[in-house]
Amino acid sequence: MSQAIPPPPPVCSGFIYAVQRGDTLFGIAGRFNVPLNSLIAANPQITNPDLIFPGQQICIPVPIPIVECCLLLFRTANVPVLPDAEAGGVARVFQVPQSPGNVLVAAIGLPPPQVLGGSIYVAWIRRPPQSPIPFQLLQTAPVVIEPGVWVGAIVFGPGEQFAPFQDIIVTAELAFPVIQPNLDRIALIGLFEQCRS
Length: 197
Fold this sequence. Notes:
Radius of gyration: 22 Å
Number of helices: 2
CATH topology of the largest domain: Immunoglobulin-like
Distance between the termini: 58 Å
Number of strands: 10
C-alpha cells in the first residue's frame, strides 16, 4: 500500500522543492541555507517535521531582504502645474527580517483630489502579479501657506515581505478602502529601482 503524498503548501514566498529520497527537513534547510524553524513555518501542511516523502512539494522560503531607502515621486501629466509649487513627493521604505516594516509617503504641491476626479488621495505599492497595497494619504494642517501637503504610512508585520516592488503611485480615488487603483487618476509615481539608501 503506497503512502499518499501530502499536498503542497497553500502559499509560498520562495520556491517549491520536490523532496528527494533520503531528504530530511534538517538537511534541506542546510542545503538551502534556511533556518530550520523558517522552513517548518513555511510548510504548515507538514504535520510531523520528521516525516516527509519523496516527491512531496515543499516551500523553501527566500530570506527577506533588508531594504532601507527613499525614492522620489514625480508628478504625472494628470496634475496641473501650480504657479507657486511643483507637485512631487518622497517615499521612505523600511524592511528588515523579524521586525515590523513600513512605508511613509509625503507629497507636496498636489491640487485637491477633486481636480483629478476623486475625493481622497491613496498611495499604492504595486507588486505584480500580487495585488497592490493601498493606504490613504491625509492632508496636513497648514503650518505655513503651502498648498497640497499630504502624508500617509502603512506598517507591515514582522517577517512580512513587501519589497522589492514595482513602484509606488498616488491616485485620486472616490473612497477608501479600495482594491485597485484608478489608473486614469495617477498624480505621482516613483519606481522602486530608483530607491536609494
